[in-house]
Amino acid sequence: MAKKTLLAAFDFDHTIIDDNSDLIAQVELARTIEAIPEVTGMSFLLQRLYDLNWEIIIISDSNSYFIKRWLESRGLAGIVAKVYTNPGEFTEDGRLKIRKYHVQNWCKLSTRNLCKGHVLETHLATARKAGSALRRVAYVGDGRNDLCPALKLTRDDFVLPRVGYPLNQLLEDHQRRPRATIVPWTSPEQILRVLEGISQT
């Protein structure tokens, strides 16, 4: 297979799934995680991007146990190249313990435990150092903590904020407009049309 030249980075809560795993993960029940609905059409979108040779990553303030379990339940774990999130594991007494991804003090747009912009930049730098051919990025998100990575994108990139969620309004109001092309979305079909177009350029 040819080297991947396109990167699709996704948030998880309210972007891939239609809920907030920060709340639900505390229930510690696999069936609860597996029952959370996707944003309708998101599984098809991810599979289609994989078939088009996009590299797919997730950058989320959720936790690794939740995301891994949910992706496995949908048969999607094998198409996501990397998940950047807070590590989650069960203790001996059966409790889910979640640790911070990192502790940062350099980004006022992000939470202390996860600067998504830093994660995205590090991923790209590491990939390129290893000989990756990645040349364009599409970032798909919804929340306040997705603003930092959106502002890190270049003129060749795309940021896709979900309509009706904070990121879309923040991109309109922020004093520093992103260099990337902004394409708001309400359904994965809209995302797919944009990213299929990028694949052909």
From TrEMBL:
Essential cofactor(s): Mg(2+)
Annotated positions binding Mg(2+): D142
Keyword Ribonucleoprotein applies: no
Keyword Cytoplasm: no
MF annotations from Gene Ontology: hydrolase activity; metal ion binding
SUPFAM superfamilies: HAD-like
Record's keyword terms, sorted: Hydrolase, Magnesium, Metal-binding
NCBIfam families: DKMTPPase-SF (TIGR01489), HAD-SF-IB (TIGR01488)
Cross-referenced PANTHER family: LP01149P (PTHR20889:SF12), PHOSPHATASE, ORPHAN 1, 2 (PTHR20889)
Family indicated by similarity: Belongs to the HAD-like hydrolase superfamily. PHOSPHO family.
Protein name, UniProt field: Uncharacterized protein
Organism, as annotated: Ranatra chinensis
